Amino acid sequence: MWSLKRAVTHLWLSSQSAARVGRIHTPHGVMDTPGFVPVATSGTVKGCDNLRLMEAGSQLIFCNTYHFLVHPGPKVVEDAGGLHKFINYKTGPIITDSGGFQIFSMSARKITNELKGKIPSKYECEIQTHRYLFDESNSASLISLNEKGATFRSYYDGELITLTPESSVMAQKQLGSDIIIPLDILPSIDNQDMMATFHRTHRWQERSLQTHKADPRGQAMYSVIHGGMDISLRNKSMDTLFEMPFDGHAVGGSIGSNRTESFDLLKAIMPRLTSTHKPVHLLGVGDTQSIGSMIGFGIDTFDSSYPTKIARTGRLLSEGGTIDISRSEFKSSHDEPIDRTCGCVACKNHSRAFLHHLNRMSELSFYTLATAHNVWKMNDYMRSLREKITRNEL
Ligand SMILES: [Zn+2]
């Protein structure tokens, strides 16, 4: 039976840090690590088709089970022959999340000073770097949360959907992804509920693993390490999840409100994670500055919609830093591509002036070209980091 434990190879360990270069082998191809994983929410990165994504050098991509549950339903994808065939991404591996993150994040509102205490909410939690509360008037609202699972209202057609650890795994089996993420709960920041949700998320992951192991289908499953910014809770989470035969580990939940806090948290927990010799994925981080500062801890893969989100707003990655192509200064940059070192479809064929024009006119092709560019640059950035690690410069 294929498993990531046997299929991950760490080819080079830096002498300067815990950074490592490796390869994750899956039934649908190889992922070079450390690598960037673009978020293809409903089977495509917004504004960019999958052929362009592959041309930009992407290997592993991240799809959201929640969105496939809402439409067209995992059965339709299964009937098509699985996600790889359905979205025509046959040459690379796919990781799918459980749907848990969206159940919480899509029914939540970021807590701002203006909102504090003004909206009735049953539940507050931290997601990545912000605090959220559940706004019960939201169309994608969380309806109930108990030991069995979570019930939420579809933002697409208002239908009530119940997701349990078992049904999330079965949906991901129907999708046929290479790496499955088990259903987890973002622990409440309410002190009374925090420990209850912390323990529940581990029970849910155990149930998920049992469901997966009963019918592995050549897929792998990562755990999701929780505990927020509390190092002792993070250690407890690792104590519990390391006892279970997961194929890799993902770091989930809150990782602090700024880069320094994230750095301190990873410094404390990463030595134990890398000692498992299994792949380590950091959920939801994808800006070059954070990746550059965190790579030394030995993280293998990072996923984030950040680089593709900023592309759609006109912010394009380049050698000299991010440029805002909407600025008037690019109106007549006829002889200059976005970035001379970039091999993407936008840089090979178009000038900054034309992209500036497409952006100002809100032409749809702008989103495709800008997104393909930022993904190419992210993949190139990861390639340069891998080279630095093998030269022991990181
Ligand atoms: Zn480019």
Q: Brief description of this entry?
A:
This protein is of the alpha/beta class.
Describe this structure in words.
- By secondary structure, this protein is α/β, with parallel strands linked by helices.
- The protein folds into 2 domains: 4-98 and 165-304, Queuine tRNA-ribosyltransferase-like (TIM Barrel), CATH 3.20.20.105; 315-372, no CATH class.
- Helices cover 38% and strands 20% of the residues.
- It has helices spanning 4-7, 50-55, 65-70, 74-79, 83-86, 100-105, 165-175, 191-213, 231-242, 259-274, 288-294, 306-312, 345-349, 352-360, 364-390; strands spanning 8-13, 20-26, 29-33, 35-38, 61-64, 94-97, 108-110, 124-127, 130-134, 142-145, 150-153, 160-163, 179-180, 220-225, 248-251, 280-283, 301-304, 315-316, 323-324.
- A hairpin with a 6-residue loop joins strand 1 (8-13) and strand 2.
- The two termini are 35 Å apart.
- The structure holds zinc ion.
- The site of zinc ion has 8 residues, from helix 13 and helix 15.
- GO terms for molecular function: metal ion binding; tRNA-guanosine(34) queuine transglycosylase activity.
- Residues 18-114, 140-393 form the tRNA-guanine(15) transglycosylase-like domain.
- Keywords: Glycosyltransferase, Metal-binding, Transferase, tRNA processing.
